[in-house]
Amino acid sequence: MDLLSESIKGRLLFAIPKKGRLHEKCLEILAGADIQFTRSHRLDVCLVRNHNIALIFLPAADIPRFVGLGNVDLGITGQDVILEAEMEDRVRQVLPLGFGKCNLQVQVPERGTIQSVKDLAGKRVVTSFNKIVKGFFDKVDDQVGLQDDKKTHIEYVGGSVEAACALGLADGIVDLVESGETMRAAGLHAIATVLETEAVLISGVSSNSQSKDPEHGPLATLIANRIAGVLAANKYVICQYNILEEKLPQAKVVTPGRRAPTISPLVNDGERWVAVAVMVEKKVVAKVMDELTQIGAHDVFVVKLENCRV
Q1: Residue 49, CB half-sphere, CA atoms under 13 Å: how many?
Q2: Cβ atoms of 15 and 72 closer than 8 Å
Q3: Is 282 left (phi over 0), alpha (psi -120 to 50) or beta?
Q4: Residues 230, 236: Cα–Cα separation, whole Å
Q5: What is the C-alpha radius of gyration for the chain, rounded to an integer number of angstroms?
Q6: Which residues, including other chains, have CB under 8 Å from residue 160's CB and lie 6 or more apart?
Q7: Which of 60, 96, 222, 226 is most buried, taking the most CB atoms under 10 A from its CB?
Q8: What is the DSSP string of the chain?
Q9: d(Cα 172, Cα 296) in Å, to the nearest integer?
Q10: What is the greatest pairwise CA distance in the chain?
Q11: One digit per residue, pLDDT tens: the chain, 310 residues?
Q12: Which residues of 261-299 are buried (b: 16+ CB within 10 A; e: fewer)?
């Protein structure tokens, strides 16, 4: 343990989910941000080769507490986990990461009589998110006038929450839902959404931070900016095309860019042409290329972004 403590001493500590729905995406983000490391088998701490950083692989549910109490400097976890850990006042959400998006939903048997959360009030609810769900149903119980032992009974299970109704353990459940296929297969349907959640990069609020190294602040900012660049590169492409200068106002409507397109004059003995380069969202780029062609653009092509700063 002394050897481990000595190896991470003075390094910025960055907590990463060690498994689960966020783990693989986090590894992709780290690779895109050029955070170079080799993780030995079963070792949950590894040193970054090209930065003064140590990666700490932890259960996602533990990361908000480690960050909030100042034991590590940065972390990636879900917004739902922050709330369940009651760390929302002790951590700062630096950057939404755009993956791990889910809804924490109240689900009940599709063929049952319960059609609203007020119908479920006072009954049995199974979940892995006791604190969030208790807070939610405390408000529902107050609305319908339930008190003491008449209030909704919240029971914790660590997994396979969707099976609780079929096994007779619950009248309803609250669990994370991404596509809803698992719930439909279990004969459940949603009657309410407790919260929407996604993965976020977090840091501790300044009053809780134990970091004394003055280099850690700029390094944390550098890492956040690199990750933001990776996310932008995944979202955008560069669209380039040539167009007559007189048609440029129409082209700007189709491709306004994040701030403005880059426009360069082309050398031509006759008509006045310009070359345009502009960032376009990947999800609409095919439609944009069609529209540019329709208004007279030529030589339209797309360049993939590996990384960027925006």
Answers
A1: 6
A2: yes
A3: alpha
A4: 10
A5: 25
A6: none
A7: 60
A8: -HHHHHHHTTSEEEEEE-SSTTHHHHHHHHHHTT----PPTT-SEEE-SSSSEEEEEE-TTTHHHHHHTTSSSEEEEEHHHHHHTT-TTTEEEEEE-S-S-EEEEEEEETTSS--SHHHHTTSEEEES-HHHHHHHHHHHHHHHT--GGGSPEEEE-SS-GGGTTTTTS-SEEEEEESSSHHHHHTTEEEEEEEEEE-EEEEEE-GGG-----TTHHHHHHHHHHHHHHHHHHHHEEEEEEEEEGGGHHHHHHH---SS--EEEEPP-SSS-EEEEEEEEEGGGHHHHHHHHHHTT-EEEEEEE-S----
A9: 58
A10: 87
A11: 466 777 888 899 999 999 888 999 999 999 999 999 988 877 899 999 999 999 999 999 999 999 999 999 999 999 999 999 999 999 999 999 999 999 999 999 999 899 999 999 999 999 999 999 999 999 999 999 999 999 999 999 988 899 999 999 999 999 999 988 999 999 999 999 999 999 999 999 864 455 567 888 999 999 999 999 999 999 999 999 999 999 999 999 999 999 999 999 998 777 899 999 999 999 999 999 999 999 999 999 999 998 888 7
A12: beeeeeeeeeeebbebebbbeeeebeebbebbeeeebee
Query: The tokens of 301 are what?
Result: 């092509």
